[in-house]
Amino acid sequence: NRNDKQYVGFATLPNQVHRKSVKKGFDFTLMVAGESGLGKSTLVNSLFLTDLYKDRKLLNAEERINQTVEITKHTVDIEEKGVKLKLTIVDTPGFGDAVNNNECWKPITDYIDQQFEQYFRDESGLNRKNILDNRVHCCLYFIPPFGHGLRPVDVEFMKALHEKVNIVPLISKADCLTPNEVKKLKDRVRDEIEHFGIKVYQFPECDSDEEEEFKQMDKELKECTPFAVIGSNTVVEARGQRVRGRLYPWGIVEVENQSHCDFVKLRNMLIRSHMHDLKDVTCDVHYENYRAHCIQEMTSKLAQDNRTDSPLPILPLPTPDVETERLIKMKDEEVQNNHH
Amino acid sequence: MREDTAQEQGLDLEPPVRMEEEMEVMEERVVEIEHPLPCLSESDTQGIIKGRDLFGYVGIEAVLDQMRRKTMKAGFEFNIMVVGQSGLGKSTLVNTLFKSKVSRKSCTPNYEEKISKTVHLQSVSHIIEEKGVKMKLTVIDTPGFGDQINNENCWEPIVKYVNEQYEKYLKEELNVNRKRRIPDTRVHCCVYFLPATGHWLRPIDVEFMRRLGKIVSIVPVIAKADTLTLEERLEFKQRIRQDLQANGIRVYPQKEYDEDAEDRILNDKIRENIPFAVVGTDKEHQVNGNKVLGRKTKWGIIEVENVAHCEFALLRDLLIRSHLQDLKDVTHNIHYETYRVKRLNESNANGLALSPLTLENGTLEKSDAESHL
């Protein structure tokens, strides 16, 4: 039993971490964006097996003429096998629905920035015990299946957001496309994404020492994007089983049938294999970019001050309003004048 | 045409994909997947819906797997400091704990070389691996502590070192372009060696632990405990615990950081037993046909890993097998945060921070300094 002798026991570390994480639980914020009627709510319900929108009242045509882009949040606590997940769905009703959709993404980029800013304040504050992380970890963007690829609003939206959030583009309501049409549309969308320089979420590379099965799955995942999805709030009977699906006169579309759509791939990617990476990229890349940008802006505002090269230059101002800034500037000038 | 959205539990969705082979899990808490109620619960104004409205299986526990793979890939860091007079077996104990020569034993015969004039800290790092888990272990030794005739303030270099590591981390954290993974040199655990006098805490012990207990997690141990009988050991421990309490010294695991009832029960048991009486060795002997780590004397073999003989195994389990991550968490969430708050408040007072209130102090100091030119 030589191995036993040499056993120190720190191999239990991952389990210690595991135990703590289970106790603490996870949180995840998912944003859905796209025009009304593309099946966003249905897809969210299908992904997380909830019914978040049951009380929703759809506005009639008249009411919708003056609708602006809103941001709504729904929070669900999900628990499975002892693991707690606090899931927040950020919806963007009204996006792209108006006649004039110029800059309709602005409320959305503002929202994302606000969450970053809030986190930045909290992180720089004195009491960091219970920081709430409301940063958006992933944005599912719904592309309509009716067109011939990306429309101008799709391109502009994604470009406005690709450096702030992980964008996962989806082809929605894919049950109106034949397999060939799906393939053509995917190729088209992929080409256009590259052509316009849109940086969608990239799956991380597989390690060389991964199992073959995993590598194969990863490869299939990457080749399948953008995912063509179908969602459903109803349960139908197909092939002797009760499944989530849509019943048509010509057949039954099964949401979880991989030959019908990529729903399973999306769900696996989002929840079962890449949730952690989505959060990491949000923290390590998007948030850090925001933070660096923010700090540089703040330091350049007070560039006259030679305190800026001290090691602890920045605590975020409580409210960087115009009045305070003016006061600071005044005081600075006073000091300068006193020395002459 | 729509079917009822019946609360259907029979949807047997795929089980999560296990990415790697199972590791021994300490306790598998299996919670029943929530059964759906006949009617969906009312969502409150914020739209919070309880998980009992689920039907089927989402697979969120796979997030744990994802996290595990990432942490396994990245590896772990652990920094342990040993403090105590020369000859108390610090290096031997650390080597025994980690079953490798991670700490250089001072075995210089020369008297002059043995006792260093000041306390200087030496840190040695090794990367050790076990069952696929990689750990960068850093042992910080403190030769010279308590060895002089006059030992006043011999804890200061140690306090300075601990704070320097916090400062390093803080600077990195405040950087504009900061590293994804900030290198962690903070002291996660300080093992303090008490000589087995059998009496009570000495003044130097009290002074040291009082100061360091505020900034780092201290684990006191009774060193070279093979000179104490079991009764003497029990009495000694009791007196030490009384002394610690009387002097307001908080050692690890601190009562106020217990997160929940489960932790408290576990930690209470530990608190009733500290300080652990340990014996260390790197020599093996034959006992009942087995090779064991032990010290061989004329009157018997002291088996280090035998809990009937000494409490080394308990210390090892505490430090490594059960509370290693917790030691790191306490360091990060409590000690480091305390340091950070102190530093930020200090820098506020010095006018380094930018805020309209403190600018007053800043300008005053500045004009004072200038006027002395």
How would you describe what is shown here?
- The complex is a heterodimer of chains A (340) and B (373).
- Chain A is α/β, with parallel strands linked by helices and 340 residues long.
- Helices cover 42% and strands 16% of the residues of chain A.
- Chain A has a 6-stranded mixed sheet, sandwiched between helices. A 3-stranded antiparallel sheet of chain A has the order 7-8-9, with no helix packed on it.
- In chain A, a hairpin with a 2-residue loop joins strand 7 and strand 8.
- In chain A, helix 9 packs across helix 10.
- Chain A is globular and about 85 Å long.
- The N and C termini of chain A lie far apart (81 Å).
- With 373 residues, chain B is of the alpha/beta class.
- Chain B is 36% helix and 15% strand.
- Chain B has a 6-stranded mixed sheet, sandwiched between helices. A 3-stranded antiparallel sheet of chain B has the order 7-8-9, with no helix packed on it.
- In chain B, helix 5 links the parallel strand 4 and strand 5.
- In chain B, helix 8 packs across helix 9.
- The longest helix of chain B has 26 residues.
- The N terminus and C terminus of chain B are likely disordered.
- Chains A and B meet through helix 2, strand 2, strand 8, helix 9 and helix 10 of A and helix 1, helix 4, helix 8, helix 9 and helix 10 of B.
- Chain A: GO terms for molecular function: GTP binding.
- Chain A: One of its GO terms (cellular component) is cytoplasm.
- Chain A: This is Septin 5a.
